[in-house]
Each structure stands twice: as C-alpha cells, then as structure tokens.
C-alpha cells in the first residue's frame, strides 16, 4: 500500500502559517498595550507626586498669582497628557482584542484541517491493518491448503 498522503497538506501548512502570524500580531498588540499602560501609570504617578510637591510648596512659601498660574498650567498640560495616554491605552486594548479574535479564528481554522488530517490518518492506518490482516489470512489459507 502506498504511504499516507494528505491532499490538503498545503492548506494545513498555509493555515499553520496564518496562525503563527496571528500569534505574532497578538503578542505585539499585548506588548503595545503594556507599554501604553506603563506610560499612563507613569503619568498618573507623576501627577500624584507633583500634587504633593504643590501642597508642600504651598505650605513652605505660600502661593503667589504667578506660582499658582504656573502650577495650574502644568497640571492642565499633565491632565491632557494623561487623557491622551488613556486614549492610547483604549486604542491598544481594542487592537489587542481584535488580534485575539483573529488568533482565535486562525486557530479554529487550523484545527479544522488538522482534525481532518488526523481522521484521514486514522482511516489510512485502519485500512493498512485490514490489508495486513487480509494478507495474513491469505497466507494462513495457503499454508493450510498446502498442509492438507
């Protein structure tokens, strides 16, 4: 009997490649999300530290109109940066979700062909066993007929 050959092997390899590409995109999206979250946390920590600094400055030196204006402008800009960073985190999370969905689809389509390959391989092995049994039965019959 000829050796096992899966006719959809090229499709299986193609889907495997697509799955690997989707995994790569998912990992990149996760890395991007983590970077953006770290940047946001850094800005939020800076805001907390600067608020504390502002309160200490207020206690030590008191507030003048110039210093109040300076702190106000700084905090306004910092809040804008935090808002922009939060938007980038949301965008990165959306990309991660899309990449995860793409990966799930790629895995599912690969599994379909992989399961079909396993099924065909099992059928091939069963047929191989049947042929071997048939040959053994034939040999047994020949030996029996010669011995009689």
Compile the SSE list and pairings.
Layout: H1 9-61, H2 65-147
Helix pairs in contact: 1-2
Membrane topology: Peripheral membrane protein
Protein name: Flagellar FliJ protein
Coiled coil: 75-139
Question: How would you characterize this protein structure?
Answer:
- By secondary structure, the chain is an all-alpha fold.
- It has one domain: Helix Hairpins (Orthogonal Bundle), CATH 1.10.287.
- 92% of the residues lie in helices and 0% in strands.
- The longest helix is centred in the last third of the chain and has 83 residues, at 65-147.
- It is rod-shaped, with a radius of gyration of 34 Å.
Biggest beta-sheet profile: none
What's the rounded overall pLDDT mean? 93
Radius of gyration: 34 Å
Order of helices and strands: HH
Instruction: Please give the number of β-strands.
Output: 0
Q: Which descriptor suits the 3D outline?
A: rod-shaped
**What top-tier CATH class fits best?**
Mainly Alpha
């Amino acid at each position: 009997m000829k050796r096992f050959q899966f006719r959809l092997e090229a499709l299986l390899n193609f889907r495997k490649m697509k799955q690997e590409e989707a995994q790569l995109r998912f990992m990149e999206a996760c890395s991007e999300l983590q970077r953006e979250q770290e940047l946001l946390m850094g800005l939020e920590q800076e805001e907390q530290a600067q608020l504390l600094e502002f309160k200490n400055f207020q206690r030590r030196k008191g507030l003048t109109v110039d210093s109040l204006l300076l702190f106000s402008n700084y905090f306004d800009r910092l809040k804008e940066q935090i808002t922009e960073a939060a938007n980038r985190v949301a965008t990165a999370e959306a990309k991660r979700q899309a990449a995860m969905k793409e990966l799930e689809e790629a895995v599912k389509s690969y599994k379909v062909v992989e399961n079909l390959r396993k099924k065909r391989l099992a059928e091939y092995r069963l047929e191989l066993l049947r042929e071997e049994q048939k040959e053994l039965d034939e040999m047994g019959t020949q030996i029996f007929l010669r011995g009689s």
